[in-house]
């Protein structure tokens, strides 16, 4: 795991310049999604947004809202503890190849043994 908590990930995003904090009260009904939509359409996926004072049902929530935290290749790589997200794809391909090689190099099971038939060992016992 790359981060102990989501809070630590948010801190890392901020330190990397990948986070915009919005301290203004913003209504969760349509407004946050509108801001997020505009940010996501920015070059490179924009920044992650942290709404510190979301308004839910007309009242300020005590819980902040983070959005677009995985909206760029850089942030996805950060979340996975990698420099580049392509590293994860390469690891997956390498594991798949190793698995396929292991399957093809496994000793073949005879038809008789696979179907529950007797083997030479069975006759000796």
Give a structural overview.
This protein is an alpha+beta fold and 125 residues long. The protein contains six helices and four strands. The chain has helices at residues 6-15, 31-40, 73-79, 86-105, 111-114, 120-123, and strands spanning 19-27, 48-56, 59-60, 65-67. Strands 1, 2, 3 and 4 form a four-stranded mixed β-sheet that branches. The longest helix has 20 residues, at 86-105. The two termini are 51 Å apart.
Q: Please describe the biggest sheet, giving its number of strands, its sense, and whether it closes into a barrel.
A: 4 strands, mixed
Report the β-strand fraction as a percent range.
15-25%
Give the number of domains.
1
Radius of gyration: 26 Å
Tally of DSSP β-strands: 4
Succession of helices and strands: HEHEEEHHHH
Return the structural class.
Answer: alpha+beta
Stretches with pLDDT under 50, minimum 5 residues = none
Residues in helix, %: 40-55%
Mean residue pLDDT: 86
Number of helices: 6
Task: Give the topology, please.
Elements: H1 6-15, E1 19-27, H2 31-40, E2 48-56, E3 59-60, E4 65-67, H3 73-79, H4 86-105, H5 111-114, H6 120-123
Parallel strand pairs: 1-2
Antiparallel strand pairs: 2-3, 2-4
């Amino acid at each position: 795991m790359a981060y102990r908590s989501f809070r630590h990930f948010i801190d890392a995003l901020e330190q990397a310049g990948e986070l915009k904090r919005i301290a203004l009260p913003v209504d969760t009904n349509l407004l946050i999604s509108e801001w997020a939509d505009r940010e996501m359409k920015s070059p490179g996926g924009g920044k992650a947004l942290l709404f510190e004072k979301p308004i839910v049902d007309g009242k300020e929530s005590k819980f902040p809202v983070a959005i677009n935290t995985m909206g760029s290749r850089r942030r996805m790589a950060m979340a996975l503890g990698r420099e580049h997200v392509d590293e994860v794809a390469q690891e997956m391909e390498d594991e798949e190849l190793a698995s396929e090689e292991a399957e093809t190099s496994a000793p073949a099971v005879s038809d008789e043994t696979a179907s529950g038939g007797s083997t030479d060992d069975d006759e000796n016992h």
